[in-house]
């Protein structure tokens, strides 16, 4: 950056106010934790951004602000390097934006952790003939191995686990279902770079029975005897799979209670599902 | 970037091989999904990087590669903008690095989703006198409200839920515990920007009883009658809290079965815990 470029950048940022020239401050929004969120939306030259950022942070420090967040849409990628050089660190990123953060307070840094887990579901759908809905996949670990498995999928950000299970079964097999219970779940680590994984086995009740398999991801789909499913060598070989199969058999053959759901309201007024053993809770 | 800068950059990347000048290729590692992972570690000029990246991608396309990942430590922030201008998108970021990705294959994009959930725990620890271990916090939503709550905390990336509960209780109160069961869990959304949240209520058995409270985060800690805990106006007012309190009371007073854990081995050979209702599974 040449001296003349800097001078030009400063000049562009000058505004006349009561006859005094000032650097234009960035328009941050206060959060409820004594912090500032900068939602950068309009294109800006790196040099002008740096001068405005320095002036803004100076003011926020005087105001006793603590965490400063900068959200940069990917179109403003030119502002990532200057932000880092001004002391910001990455916090998280999605395909179309990056969030940076800097702790400018004197107290202990209380910047919250980034999301650490991906969440998946496996759907246990049975009909009255003790048959379970199973698929073979076109991609991934099980491709071409002849393994019949439950429909599975990833729970989206903002999606309820119970709804994700219903959606995935519909997408992969065309079967309509309703949610019954979560029978079990598994937590595993380093499933995706350093991230961890939570996988919920959901029991669903079928509301339709004619399979319309999805073309691109699903090689085959069918109703299969639950005993035949559980007897597959692949299932028997891995106790992660066989223990889940045993839980599903227990649900059909014994009085197994999983976790069902109730809608609740959180302290901040949002609706969210709590999952627990409602059968045991309702005992006298 | 001036023409002479480009020429210099190209020249610096030239290597003589069998008398032919070539741009140096980047050293990517193949992943198991037909992709390439570039772990950039050494500093590099942006211009040189762009030429090497173009040449490398050209070769990877010929080899039928599909997803190309670039991991950039924060020290190499100068390579973020050139990567985006070459067609890469953000995938995720942690404080000290950003991961970018580009799908160069002809088939459907199967880039996996980013982590979507944060995971937290609340610890239900009771002694023989029907007392529960509770704290008041120095920070956050409950600061200064006089609410007694279970010790809570965030599950780290790579940490087991059961272990996180034991760790948080030890950190906040000094009490040693062992894991018993997960009694319930709650899923909520937009708890942190767009990210979702899973909160597990873990029952722990105390192995010690003398409280040594943590200084910076915890205002006060004590053993409190479970009925007194559940009767707090704040708990009664929010059914998210009261339903959890009811589950905990049911655990003490009725025959309530939560989910206990067994270690299992996944298809890829990793150890991970499966959580389920082991009491019902062991029924005849």
TrEMBL record, chains A, B:
Belongs to the Nudix hydrolase family. Pfam families: NUDIX, Nudix_hydro. Coiled coil: none annotated. Keywords: Hydrolase, Metal-binding. It comes from the Eukaryota. Residues 116-248 form the Nudix hydrolase domain. It comes from Gossypium tomentosum. This is Nudix hydrolase domain-containing protein. GO terms for molecular function: ADP-ribose diphosphatase activity; metal ion binding; NAD binding; NADH pyrophosphatase activity. The keyword tRNA processing does not apply.
């Amino acid at each position: 950056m040449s001296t003349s470029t800097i001078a030009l950048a400063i000049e562009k940022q000058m505004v006349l106010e009561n006859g005094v020239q000032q650097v234009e401050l960035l328009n941050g929004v206060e959060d409820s934790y004594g912090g500032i969120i900068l939602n950068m939306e309009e294109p800006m030259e790196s040099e002008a951004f740096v001068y405005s950022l320095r002036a803004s942070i100076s003011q926020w420090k005087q105001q006793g602000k603590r965490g400063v967040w900068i959200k940069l849409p990917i179109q403003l990628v030119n502002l990532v390097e200057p932000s880092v050089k001004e002391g910001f660190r990455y916090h998280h990123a999605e395909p179309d934006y990056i969030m940076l953060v800097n702790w400018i307070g004197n107290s202990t840094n209380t910047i919250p952790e980034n999301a650490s887990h991906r969440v998946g579901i496996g759907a246990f759908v049975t009909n009255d003939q003790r048959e379970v809905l199973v698929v073979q996949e076109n991609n991934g670990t099980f491709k071409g191995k002849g393994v019949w498995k439950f429909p599975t999928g990833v729970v989206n950000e903002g999606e309820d686990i119970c709804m994700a299970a219903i959606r995935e079964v519909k997408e992969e097999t065309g079967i309509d279902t309703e949610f019954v219970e979560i029978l079990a779940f598994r937590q595993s680590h380093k499933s995706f770079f350093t991230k961890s994984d939570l996988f919920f086995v959901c029991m669903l009740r079928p509301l339709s029975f004619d399979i319309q398999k999805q073309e691109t991801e699903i090689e085959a789909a069918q109703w299969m005897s639950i005993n035949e499913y559980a007897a597959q060598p692949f299932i028997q070989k891995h106790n992660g799979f066989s223990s889940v199969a045993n839980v599903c058999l227990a649900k059909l053959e014994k009085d197994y209670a999983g976790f069902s759901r109730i809608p609740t309201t959180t302290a901040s007024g949002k609706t969210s599902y709590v999952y627990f053993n409602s059968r045991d809770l309702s005992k006298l």
